[in-house]
Structure formats: C-alpha cells, structure tokens
Design goal:
The protein contains 9 helices and 10 strands. By secondary structure, the chain is α+β, with helices and mostly antiparallel strands. It is elongated and about 175 Å long.
C-alpha cells in the first residue's frame, strides 16, 4: 500500500505517523539538529564557538600563506601600504600583509628600447626621413612608477623633441654622410637635458641613429651627390697616400744635397787653406831663388794642364808628312808607365807623363823639338 493511500497510517517517510503534519520538515529545524550534534544548542540556536575558532584559524592560515612573494635577482620590489609608497625591497623571498600591502616588481637590469622616426626639416630647409632608437634602463623604481603617469611615453615625446631640435640645427649633407656621429651625440645630450627635470627614474644607455634618407622624389639626385662625395674622399685619400710615399724620398734627396754641399764647402775650404799654407812655405824659397822657383812653378802648372788633355806625338819627315801616335792609347795597351820612343825623336823628362799633347819636329834641339798642346 502506498504511503499516501487512505487508511495508511505510520508509513509517511517524513515522519508524519499521526497524520497531523501536512509537509516536509523546516530547514531551520534540520540546521538546529546538525549544530546540536557538535556540542549542543546554546541560547536557542547560536553557532558553536569551536567551529568559529577553527574557521578563523583556517582563514588566518590562508591569509598568512597568501602574503609570501618572491623578487627576482634583476628586479626591485616597491611596497605600497594602503596604496601609498612604503619601502623598496631587494631580491629574495618576502612577506606582505595581504589586502594591506602590495608589492610591485620592477626590472632594473633589463635594457629597453624605444624607437622614434619622422620627416624632419633641416637647417638648410630640406626634408629628411630620420629614424632613431634609444636604449634605456630603469634606475629608480619609485620615480619610474609614481613621478609621471607614463614614463615610457614621456621618454618617447622627449626623444622626438630632442631629435627634431638637433636635425633642425644640422645640414642635410651632415645628416646623410659625415655628420651622423655628431647628430647622435647631440641628440643624446639634448634628450638627457629634457628628461632630467621630470625625474622619470630612467637612465639613457645609448642612442642609435639609423640611416637617414631623403624623400623618394629626390632620392636619385641625393644618391648622385653622395657618390660624388665618396669619390672626392677617395681621391683625397689617394693623394694623401701619394704624398706620404713621395715626401720621404724628397726629404732624403734634400738631405743628401745638403750633405754634399756641406762636404764640398769643407773640401774647398781645406784646399784653400792648404794652398795658403803652401804659398806661405814657398815664399822663403822664392825669395832665395826667384828664377828657379818660377821655373818649377811653370813646370808644375804645365804638368797639371797636360795631365787633363790627350797627348799626340808628331814626327815630321823631310817631305812634310806627319805621323800621329796617340800616346794614351799606346800606354793603356802596353801597360807601360814610360812613354814609347818614335824614330829618332826623344821626349824630355818633364814630357814623359801619360797625359798632355806633344808636337816634336825632326831636327829640333835636344829638348825634344817644339812642343805644342793639341786635342783630338
């Protein structure tokens, strides 16, 4: 028989044995029965104190464990207490009060990069496309987080301003060719001067100027101009190399000529001094025997004169024919130091040198006939 059929008594699954209850038990009653099993009912339905204590301990444990944090070696932690700056912590494991403190890690070793580019007007009123990248690092985490709203965007605007200022004070040729390094250095100095008053907590590591280019409409003309400048620089370097190669040779020739001139001057000076000394020594002899001294000087002079000319001996026959003998050639062939004899002609003792020119007539006196100088 079903529990709800007429005449069924005491089979109600909800415990209605007398038939007086019209529905399921109240949830409040079920809850009271459950709490009574943990220690009884106090004050008509209050929660057990032991259960509350256990719950509080569990919550405190969870709260305490949730406060542990870790800061990496390359980071620094900025601690906020109730939303305001409290302190800065270093790398390692730490603990914070959850819901009270907040720790923001900031990487201070990572080098960040920020690009900037645009069409800019140069000092000579030309337009050039310039691209630049700045590398920076966070050095003050507190200033980086709280001094400005967006430090990266502020740095980007400052770099654009510095780059436009430097490009506006530089000619286009310098930006495209030889003045790129100066533009880079000036831009870095200007950028550091702009961001210093704001206290961004950043340090500029390097500024890289990428290859600039003119507008596409005039690119071909500027390429030709750059090629011409490169050719000019190449010719200048070649000329400098040639100058470095020729200059030492010229200096060597100059030094050699100076040394030769100095040696010639010393030689002439010494010869002149020697002649003076010889004449001084000759003066007493001339005073003692003037004729003999004059004759000796004459013979010595003629010896020097004939020593620098070719000598030819002439033997005149009775019929007027002449016979020439080149004495210097004969002496070279024979190797003899004495002069050869020709016919009945004789050379005098002073005419026996291998130089000079002699003309001896047949039938002349015993000094070798008439002597005359001749040249081939």
């Amino acid at each position: 028989m079903a529990w709800n059929e007429p005449g069924n008594k005491g089979n109600d699954p909800w415990g209605n044995r007398g038939g007086n209850d019209q529905g399921p038990p109240d949830l409040d009653q079920v809850f009271r029965k459950l709490t009574s099993r943990f220690g009884g009912n106090r004050g008509g339905g209050g929660i057990n104190a032991a259960a509350v204590g256990i719950a509080v301990i569990l919550l405190a444990l969870v709260w305490g464990l949730s406060g542990f944090y870790k800061i990496e070696e390359a980071e620094r932690g900025v601690v906020l207490r109730f939303g305001q700056y409290y302190e800065q912590v270093g790398p390692g494991l730490g603990w914070k009060a959850t819901f009270i403190d907040e720790v923001i890690p900031v990487n201070v070793n990572n080098i960040r990069e920020l690009p900037a580019s645009g069409m800019m007007l140069t000092m000579d009123e030309n337009v050039v496309a310039v691209q630049m990248k700045v590398q920076y690092r966070i050095t003050d985490p507190r200033a980086y987080l709280f001094n400005v709203t967006n430090p990266d965007e502020s740095l980007n605007e400052a770099m654009d301003s510095a780059l436009r200022y430097v490009v506006g004070h530089t000619t286009m040729d310098d930006i495209l060719t030889t003045g790129r390094e100066q533009v880079r250095q000036d831009t870095r100095v200007e950028l550091e001067g702009i961001i210093e008053p704001y206290g961004l907590g950043l340090t500029v590591v390097d500024v890289n100027l990428l290859p600039a280019r003119p507008p596409e409409e005039v690119k071909d003309a500027f390429d030709d101009a750059i090629s011409a400048q490169e050719d000019e620089e190449r010719f200048v370097r070649e000329a400098e190399a040639y100058a470095r190669a020729v200059e030492p040779e010229a200096r060597g020739r100059v030094q050699r000529m100076e040394q030769e001139a100095t040696a010639y001057r010393e030689r002439v000076t010494l010869e002149a001094q020697g002649e003076v000394t010889r004449f001084v020594q000759l003066l007493p002899q001339y005073l003692a025997a003037p004729e003999v001294t004059r004759e000796r000087l004459y013979l010595e002079t003629m010896e020097k004169v004939f020593g620098n000319t070719s000598k030819v001996m002439v033997d005149t026959e009775g019929n007027g024919s002449m016979f020439y003998l080149p004495l210097d050639k004969i002496i070279e062939r024979s190797g003899s130091k004495s002069a050869p004899k020709v016919g009945a002609s004789q050379m005098s003792e002073s005419d026996s040198q291998p130089s000079g020119t002699f003309n001896t007539n047949r039938g002349a006196n015993n000094r070798g006939g008439s002597i005359r100088q001749g040249r081939n």
